[in-house]
Amino acid sequence: MADLFVKQAKEYLQTRPSYPAKLVEFIASKTPNHDLVWDDGCGSGQAAIL
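Structure for Methyltransferase type, as requested:
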């Protein structure tokens, strides 16, 4: 069962579009300090790796 999850997770990571750079830049422009980030409700976690 774990192997199935690993395979699906890898495929998801490879095929799901990333967030647009402009969106990340916009959000970053609204915060004065970038040393610490809280990703509340990150879902798949892909926003956390940006």
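DSSP finds two helices and no strands in the chain.
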